[in-house]
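Example 191.
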Amino acid sequence: MSLGSHTNASRPAANTGWCGVVTKPECRAINPNGLIPVIDDDGFVLCESSAIVRYLAGRYVEGTLSPTDASSRADADRWMDWQAVSFNPAIGPAFVQLLRTPVVQRDSVVVENACLEAEKRLAILDAHLASHAFAAGAAHTMAMGDIPLGCSIDRWFKLPIARESHPYVERWYQALSARAGAKQVVGLALA
Ligand SMILES: N[C@@H](CCC(=O)N[C@@H](CS)C(=O)NCC(=O)O)C(=O)O
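Predicted structure in complex with glutathione:
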């Protein structure tokens, strides 16, 4: 999951920090969207998480996490886009309610609907993973398409919600979590 640990970059990414710093002027100066992540890689400043993953993989691990053949590359792109435009928007309202909204203002219907939508999408991912070791990549090797998706699923597992069983998603998540680069991500509490 954490791409920096998979690259040979000595300092692959200087993160601006963590939640709570995004409104500071120094963060706004390098990402006017006021969001993390944003990296400064030897003077090259870049925001948008999927663009960051594509950049780091392309610059530091071209040919492995960043596939060079067109179909493998497109497959990695597909899962990066899917988590950004399908899974994250589905589960996002639950995250906002449970992590960003004071308890007295929370709307349980919003959480319930978000979980229902997320479960529909997880069924799609589970069906894919039933016949693939990783969402993207070759038989025994993940590709960059697994990284943002893995982060999203990590967040889903940590939300205080009821979850349906998705055995192939769970198997894939365990495999990702065991990788050295993922340990710093799975060890983090939601914030
Ligand atoms: N499309 C952006 C979304 C970034 C985003 O939503 N970042 C969240 C954290 S995951 C954020 O900075 N929220 C402000 C906060 O948590 O204070 C990307 O993929 O980088």
